[in-house]
Design a protein that fits this description.
single chain, elongated
């Protein structure tokens, strides 16, 4: 139960220190003059010798994880394991230029098609709210963006990503459905 309450990072360190304490890394095998190719590992629990399966069960981990932690122990010693992709941007993530392209498209579309509301609306902080045509949904505007992106050879993005960028970067362009939700019309 104790191991189940630990975070992944803490559990790695617990297993790593236990493996370190019970590891034989001498260069020669005890009964012959052969060179040791890999460290000999014994597993202990409360001073008793146990098998690897029971050790894995007691620590709530799999055999693979114990092997990976053992390899990390041999390579790096008693330091915390760091994932190989840490501080690296995934390939599929949007770049700043992709977000900038969506922002420019939305501004251009709003300047050509949207109307400015006269006066300020309650529940809307900005007085310069732009309303796109009421016959267009967000999905329709996304479809227009996809067509223009294909013509311009820009990166295609999903509707949910398009909506998130719209919400984050262009909060002054509000769909009519949003306003009706505000006023419960």
């Amino acid at each position: 139960m104790y191991c189940q309450e630990l975070t992944k990072y803490e559990l790695d360190l617990v297993i790593k220190t236990e493996l370190f304490a019970q590891r034989n890394t001498s260069p020669c095998v005890e009964k012959s003059d052969q060179k040791r190719l890999r460290p000999k590992q014994t597993y202990m629990f409360r001073g008793k010798l146990i098998c690897r399966n029971l050790y894995c069960f007691l620590h709530d981990v799999g055999k693979q994880k114990v092997q990976v932690i053992g390899r990390a122990l041999d390579q790096n010693g008693l330091t915390a394991r760091v994932h190989g992709n840490k501080n690296r941007q995934p390939i599929h993530s949007l770049t700043f230029k992709d977000r900038q392209n969506v922002l420019e498209f939305l501004k251009r579309y709003a300047s050509e098609n949207a109307i400015v509301l006269p006066g300020r609306l309650p529940y809307v902080k900005n007085a310069q709210v732009l309303l796109p045509p009421s016959d267009k949904r967000q999905a329709d505007i996304h479809e227009i963006y996809e067509q223009s992106a294909a013509l311009s050879q820009l990166r295609s993005i999903s509707l949910s990503t398009f909506a998130r960028i719209w919400h984050d970067l262009c909060p002054i362009i509000i769909m009519l459905t949003k306003i009706t939700q505000i006023f419960n019309v």
